[in-house]
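Hey Z.,

So I finally got round to the BIS(adenosine)-5'-pentaphosphate thing we talked about over coffee. Here's the setup:
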Amino acid sequence: MKYYILFGPPGAGKGTQAALLVEKYNLHHVSTGDLLRKEIKAGTPLGLQAKEIIAKGDLVPDAIVEGMIKNEIVSNQDVKGFLFDGFPRTVAQAEALDKMLAELNTGIDSIISIAISDEVVHQRIHHRAMIENRADDANDETIRTRIANYHEKTEPLIAFYKAQNKYFEFEGEGTIEEIFGRISKHIEK
Ligand code: AP5
Ligand code: MG
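And the result:
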């Protein structure tokens, strides 16, 4: 069983690359953002709690996403591997994930990081806002908060995974196919 993390700032192209990677390598895609949006759509208590937080561009509490991830891992042990997208996003989440996998006598194989500048983040999110209807793409203040949260709370994971020799960074500017090619080469190594 392989465990990959797709890492990068908001709008880096994680969801876009994940769709191609899961198809090519037969992985189970776990996007905490997608799972939370599903809860919001279904109007569950968790969804109601997450809705306001997401609309502001803040992170939902670690315990909530950790519970969702644990559920995905234990209920999908028949797959070839997992591709986590948008998780972990804090050092506490990364530690919780290491612990969950250690209990299964396994661990993360690699962190696939898509690197793009804040300027391109803005461009891609503005572009998506015209196509999709995501509450957190709707205004500049929310987008700025998401980027600030990424730098403050998520970027420390780079050092965390570098210390484990599991961090691999890919240039995220270029066509979708070019970036997919770079990541595919890494997975096939
Ligand atoms: P989440 O859904 O994970 O959002 P995000 O991290 O902000 O990332 P995005 O989904 O916005 O971007 P992406 O990297 O997937 O890019 P995409 O492929 O769409 O999280 C949403 C919220 O949920 C969070 O803010 C938080 O509140 C909460 N949350 C989620 N996980 C959490 C966690 N673990 N802990 C706590 N809270 C959590 O691409 C973007 C656009 O660019 C698209 O239009 C796409 O077509 C385009 N594009 C992609 N690649 C290219 C390219 N190469 N060239 C040109 N355009 C491109
Ligand atoms: Mg996404």
